Amino acid sequence: PRWQVKAIAAKIASIALTAISNIGESGAAAPDFDLIAARAALTKECQDANASSANLGPAPRSYAALHLEQLIAAACSTSIATLNQAELPMLQNAGLRFLILLVKHFGDALDPDSLSAGGAKEAILAQFSSQITSTVKHALTVSDEEG
């Protein structure tokens, strides 16, 4: 069934995210986990490609931070998935594990496009807080009903 494929996909996404964090640059400004650093790295790659005479070079690299909205949406939708009003624990657990990894890796990242009242940048996950909160509430509700 499709839900089993989604569970495997969520597990693979978790493995990939962990691998990226293990082989990537360390520190707070690692481009895979910092949108500001990812945009700067991508801009530099594009400028370098434009400056070179051979425009047939490799395509610019993609960074996880550039796809955060899709990653959060995938993790949250997998975490609350049901089939005919029946919970799918295997799929939901895989989605929650993926969501936990996303929060762990992007928890300190700042959003370059938003400013808080004091002029400081907000955490990038702030824009997803209602989605993440809803997902966690669903998981806790399911846990209470089962336990």
UniProtKB/TrEMBL annotation:
InterPro entries reported for this sequence: Laa1/Sip1/HEATR5-like_HEAT
Which Pfam families does its entry note? Laa1_Sip1_HTR5
This chain belongs to which protein, by name? Exportin-T
- Originating species: Trieres chinensis
